[in-house]
Amino acid sequence: MKTYKLTALFGLLLILFVSNGLGQDTPCSALVLSYGESGIGDNSLALPNDEIASCFSDSAVDSDIWWSFEAASTGAWIYTSDVSLGNSDTQLAIYSSSDNTCVGKFTAIACNDDISTTNWMSSAKACGLVPGDTYYVQVDGWAGARGGFQIDMVDSPNCVVCDPTGCEAGEFSVGESQELCPGEFAPYSISGFSLPEDPTCPASGAMLVLPTGNGSIGGPFNGGGFIWTNPDLSGQLDYISSISFEGELPLEGPWEFKPVVFIDGGLLEICDEVTTSIKINFLSSSNPNCIADTTCN
Question: pTM for this one?
């Protein structure tokens, strides 16, 4: 009976050990990251004992944990999301190993601190991978940020890295945030818009459409957002009752519209976004504010 109790206690400690980051505290204790499957990380108890990547904006690694993966193609996109799990500010690096093991010399091949100025999760793409080789992923909390987060990896065989110089989302001129009934519209204009100078960059202008009030957007469009590519540089946001994005997505309710420029080389990466946006609450036709008053006076 005593042996049984000790075994059960050991099992409980092991679960806590792994789920809070201690079990992933070094590259040699990394968990396997799988393509197309969301993982949950937690660096709450992780120790600051590893190297710091070049893009990390603080002076030391505070609470990093590790994953590893075997490359399926020449490119991979890895990102963190879901601030509701506790950690809202991650930094992420992808490393190659000189001997393809956890004890080889590591070289950072991709790195990202923040997805954007408003989304402090991380998104990094690694190109030029060798299929079959093992790579290592480090996720740290900026300035000691700790807690849970979601991590995903997407295969990107057509991955490209290009110079984003010249990428400008421009200035967004809009009216005040407002409510719209079916058939109404909100005018806007964009000025100073430009694509990267590098001709190898497959860049496009887009309108990032985000549901408001649900926290940070991760991955970078996880959480119900979608991209409306190549919008007119001036025009209007027409009311749409529904739009197809991985299924039927009702547009009724509060949404935020923000112009961006993104690079799509087998994966989606924002190279610039405006600092202003327009927030619109789309009302249903049955909303009292949208029902015309036909009473005669």
Answer: 0.59
